Amino acid sequence: MPASPAVIGHNHIVCCDGGILSNFPMSIFDRHDGRPARWPTLGVKLSGQVTIRDQDWHSDNSNLQLAKSLLTTMISAHDRSYVNDPQASSRTIFVDTSDFRATDFRLSRSDKDAMYAAGVAGGKRFLTTWDWDKWKSGDYTMKP
Fold first, then answer.
1. Alpha-carbon gap, residue 83 to 125, rounded angstroms
2. What is the rounded average pLDDT of the residues 3-13?
C-alpha cells in the first residue's frame, strides 16, 4: 500500500492479518478492569479440541519439514494454549470440522449439511453442561 515517506519514513506499508497471532480472539471481549462479567462471552471453535502437542517431531525430518513445523507452531500455539486454559475451554463450543478444510469453497450440499449437523451437535453438547453462575464463581470444570 502506498504511503508518504514524510509521515512514516518509508514509501509503503505492509499489513498482516491478525490471524497470524490469533484465530480465536475470544478474550478481547472479556472484561479487563477487575470487575465481574455482566454476561457470558462464549466462543465457537470450528475444530475439535486438541492439545498443544498433537504431532511428534522425528529426527529424520528434513529442514523444510522443520521450517514448516516451526511456522505451524508459531501460528497455532498461542490459540491452543489459550483454548487449553480451563477458563477458556469451559466456555468454548467445539465443532469438529476435521473432515473439511477452511479453503474448500466447493462443498457439496451433503458436506454443508454434515457441517451444520456437527455445529448443532456441538452446541447441544455444550449447553447440556454449561452453567453461567457456576462459571462466574470460578468453577471451570464443566465439560461436554
1. 17
2. 72
Q: What is the pLDDT of residues 38-63, one digit of tens each?
A: 888 898 888 766 554 545 556 667 88
Residue 104 in any domain: the answer is: yes
User: Environment class of residue 50 by beta-carbon count within 10 Å: exposed (0-12), middle (13-18) or buried (19+)?
Assistant: middle
Backbone angle region of 109, left / alpha / beta, with phi > 0 → left and psi within -120 to 50 → alpha: alpha
Domain count, the chain: 1
Per DSSP, the three-state class of 134 is: helix
Start-end of H helices in the chain? 5-8, 63-84, 86-89, 109-127, 132-136
Q: Is residue 131 part of a domain?
A: yes
- 143 lies in some domain: no
Classify residue 17: in a domain, yes or no: yes
